[in-house]
UniProtKB/TrEMBL annotation:
Keyword field contains Isomerase: yes
Catalytic activity: 5-dehydro-4-deoxy-D-glucuronate = 3-deoxy-D-glycero-2,5-hexodiulosonate
Superkingdom field: Bacteria
Family the entry assigns: Belongs to the KduI family.
The encoding gene: kduI1
Residues that bind Zn(2+): H197, H199, E204, H246
Name of the protein this chain belongs to: 4-deoxy-L-threo-5-hexosulose-uronate ketol-isomerase
E.C. no: 5.3.1.17
Note on cofactor: Binds 1 zinc ion per subunit.
Pathway it works in: Glycan metabolism; pectin degradation; 2-dehydro-3-deoxy-D-gluconate from pectin: step 4/5
Length: 279
């Protein structure tokens, strides 16, 4: 049975008063993948949707939740997918796309039917999904790491040596507002997105994976002078408001997917926060 959850937006004043349970209830998405289900969470920050599809031994379809008030899911939306499991086949209005591990797919507005299946049921695909409202129909397109714009940042000395793979971004393909990519931390590095930043022109969501068994990631959020943290496990996602930092430190190296939407497609559109000014 598919799931759909809607979460309201919160201001910094509200979040300042939240305890651990309230923070997790409002921002953490614990169950991204469940066998033969599509789990979706709608955030009222930029009407962004985060979710996952995990087909095991059968084909499953992208649902059209009643809350969207649409004739089909992508009537007024665009969709981004990154595969974090076994080899997948995604069919969009009859066109088939094969996605290997860490390959991405953009599906444009107006696509009526989308389905997901695993090539091998013993190694099920895990299709991480982000979706944002769209005003224009752009062609669906697969993007592999070979097609990505790749940037190397950080250093072992500051425990943040990482590779940023810009997959579904405007320097690689056309989208309306959805942007997605994947950051891989090198062995011995644990910090992501540090120094931290905010960008009031768009919200963001992080999905943490390749977190080794028995290890965790501490995700940091909040205004730079009023930070909070959420402990996260493998294959979990977290919503980041546009006024919030979005950074993390793990007890091991790991990989995460970032997705965002808003009024600006410029990846470099950031308001930087000095490390020594964080509180």
């Amino acid at each position: 049975m598919n799931t759909f959850e809607s979460r309201y937006a919160q201001s910094p004043k509200e979040v300042k008063q939240m305890d651990t349970s309230a923070l997790r209830e409002n921002f953490l998405i614990e169950n991204v993948f469940e066998a033969n289900q599509v789990n979706l969470t709608l955030s009222h920050f930029d009407r962004y949707i985060v979710g996952g599809a995990m087909p095991v031994g059968q084909k499953i379809d992208l649902p059209n939740p009643d809350d969207l008030k649409a004739n089909f899911f992508l009537e007024r939306r665009e969709l981004g997918i990154i595969n974090v499991g076994g080899k997948a086949i995604v069919t969009a209005d009859g066109e088939k796309f094969e996605l290997n591990y860490k390959e991405a797919l953009y599906i444009g507005k107006g696509t009526k039917e989308v389905s997901f299946e695993s090539v091998d049921g013993n190694q099920p695909a895990k299709l991480y999904i982000n979706s944002a409202p769209a005003h224009h129909a752009y062609p669906s397109k697969k993007v592999s790491k070979a097609d990505a714009e790749i940037v190397e940042l950080g250093a072992p000395e500051t425990a943040n040596h990482r590779i940023i793979n810009k997959l579904l971004v405007n320097s690689v393909l056309q989208t309306c507002q959805l942007q997605m990519g994947m950051t891989e931390l090198k062995s011995g590095s644990v910090w992501n997105t540090m120094p931290a930043h905010t960008h009031d022109r768009r919200m963001e969501a992080y999905f943490y994976f390749e977190v080794p068994e028995g290890q965790s990631v501490c995700h940091f959020m909040g205004q730079p002078q009023e930070t909070r943290h959420i402990w996260m496990q493998n294959d979990q996602a977290v919503i980041s408001p546009n006024w919030s930092i979005h950074s993390g430190a793990g007890t091991s190296n790991y990989t995460f997917i970032w997705g965002m939407a808003g009024e600006n497609l410029d990846y470099g559109d950031m308001d930087h926060c000095a490390i020594t000014e964080l509180k």
